[in-house]
Amino acid sequence: MAGSVKANPGLYFGAYPAADWPLVIAAWTAADLLRLAPSTPTVDVTLHHNGALSATVRGATVPAAPRPVADIIRSGMWYTELSRTTTIHATTPPAAPGPAWTDLTVTVHSDLDADLFGLPAGTWWHNGVQRFAGLLTNPRHRPPDGRHVDVWDEATGERAELPLATATTG
Length: 170
Description:
single chain, alpha+beta, Heat Shock Protein 90, 26% helix, globular
């Protein structure tokens, strides 16, 4: 899939302009982490000043398998191929998990591929919290009722709990 994704990324991002693709990746990451933790109301997303993004969820459940937890999580995140690097860290699961590892803290950190977006590295977060809030109004990206994304722009200090209409500076 990597070749086809990078060869024609517009097919995967629909009508969103290339400047919003990093925010769409952030939304996909947040949604996938919320799916791992169905009883957890929040995923924390950080838009890093260098153009990277991080997302963390607590209370995740991952089906047990003979391979590492991070590999299982990565297999459900095809869009990580749009990053130069993606690191997935999960708290160490117990040695004998049963059918699933539970109550994990999972963090995904992606160094996005500036060449793919055709934008200078790190510039795509400009007004990122407000643009991200707008993105989450789309039913395709909106968290389920009662669930939300806490987003923080590391460069500006702007924070918001989304989906809400306003953001605060902190």
